[in-house]
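Researcher: Next entry in the queue.
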Amino acid sequence: MSSLMAIFCRGVVIVSLVSLNTRLLADGRWEAVPVATLLSAVWWINARTASQVEGIPAMLIYASGAGCGTALGLWLGGL
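Model: Structure for this entry, 79 residues:
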């Protein structure tokens, strides 16, 4: 179960950073630069570990995290 929680959290973190960075870029805000740096680091870590868990349940958990991450990134970008 802990591996599924880790997959969910990676989906949340990665997609919230993408969503936040997109919002910041669209607004022309310089805060997008450090967010992009953090996003790249998290993405690199995820790429190294994403293949450790497979199957439909893992895909659905990651997708759910990504949906939550989209909402979180949009919210953070509106602050």
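Model: Helices lie at 2-26, 32-49, 56-77.
Researcher: Noted, moving on.
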